[in-house]
Specification:
Number of domains: 4
Mean pLDDT: 88
Low-confidence stretches: 1-10, 395-403
Distance between the termini: 64 Å
Amino acid sequence: MISGCSGQSGSEEIEVSPGKHTVGHSADGGVTVDIPGSSVTSEGALHIDSATTPDGRHGWSIELGGTELTGAATLRFPVGDLEPGEPVPVVTYAANPEAEPTVATDVRYDSGDVVVTTDHFSFWLVDRWNDVRASATSWLRGRFDDIASFGYGAQPTCPGEREVRDAGFDATSDQGKRVYWCLGQDAQSPLLKAVNARGYGVSVEYTPGLEFAGSDRKDWIGHVADLLRPAPINRGNHVELLPSGSEIEFDVIENSTSDGVMIRPEPASYLLTALDFGVGTYAMAIERVGGSGAADKFLTAMEGASCLSSFSKMTSSDLDGAGELTQFFNTALNMALDCAEIALEEADLGPVLATIIAPVIWVVDGVRTAIDGFIGAAESIDRNGYQIIVHRPTADTEVAGSPAADTEIIEVVAVDDAGEPLPDWRARNPRRTTIDCSYPFPSVSSRGTDVVTCGSTADAAHTCWVHTDRQSLTCAIDPWKQEYSQYQLDEPLGPVPAAEKAEPEWIELDDGTHCFRRHGGAWGARADDLAGAYYCEGVDYFVLVDEGPAIDTSTRQWTVRVGEMGAPDEVFPAPTVARVARAYFTTSPD
């Protein structure tokens, strides 16, 4: 149990009686109590004890023994000179150091002292707003320091972890401490829990075989997460936003082969983090002087703040590099502070707590001046994703010691019937450039007509849909980010058949790694003469191939060999076998 502590060595006992003007001082000189003789009914004793709140702030317990306070008394707290513009310090009182405080209203500043007139005694605290500002600044700096750390939050626990694996379910994931997770079983279905261990928010995209069962997001941040929810990268998936340290739970509901989640930061989650930081700064300052009840009223007001709608317009931002991310986060944080200020002014805190609104705004205005000193920490955000794959029971053989799961075949279509890009896709090049398509070939991954390969390797025009004008192309580059390039031809193209034996343009390994098919270019080599067939994003290995196919499709669970590449005579360890979770082909629009 958390409790305050009272130091008896700092205790003062002063006799009081009717008709006698009594002035008492605390042993530490922090408070003077002035009781007129007319304010007590009988003889007694004034006790002044130093005491400390659970969060370490120093105050004073003031009590009368043997008599009661029937009139007014004056408390005088020496605080020194105030800074220019600094509001009069806030004085609060409570039944004891652990209790919810009440803000005193009859307060004035007099030549270095804060003076309070009161008709009761209890536990008293004085907070200079300059100290509150320093604490709020330190709190916000700590949140930025957390950005660079992993291991935020705690490992979740799942019921029935042994039972779900005995039933043939399993899960695999990326390595590291960016996510904690567990797979279990309740009375209804298998379940997956994941905790965002990063010091900032992330998006959680999940496949149709998983059903969102809830999270521990606080009410106001959950409301914002719903408001800012981005569209999924892959059609048919769903997305939730998860703040730092929060837990999310899914039920495994469908009888498909495998499902999973991809956890990654993106603009919507950066906005959620900025709001969490900005609103949290206000809430911390309000709770410091007004208690948790006042902070809760403010956060309730945040749920209905109309200014939140302006953040949803920024979720589609395309950030390129750490510099743009830092500027984006800086803008978002200042918008969050502005929005929180509006919500605070509109919040119904009651007439007593309303007196702290202007001083709290003064506090946060001071915090703003320090933001430039630590906003650069946003550059350390790890923009890589983290994937968890849930494998359902199958009758197939095992690969690398875990149950095999069928490779999921995904057909990618980035355009509509007219060849125009679908709304969820975005262009990597801002306008159409002309490309040479004198020698068109069916895309190697095409299972439909009019999907063509044109130009050089550098053009990246390997999977291009032909528009109805036969002179415009939309070319898929990345199915996970749903990015495309767009080109114009000098001459119209004739009909393009499907590939005779289509092979995947992209593959996704069961650890979540994204791999892109090789189309020429200068790659590394190996002493064993294995060559690179697919480049794999964010890792130090490639999918390797010899004279045969790069992908072993002899079983329902496809596999590849992966390993490093370097100089032609460089000796590397023998390649290892990796499972292909998903293989991506292209096809014609419906």
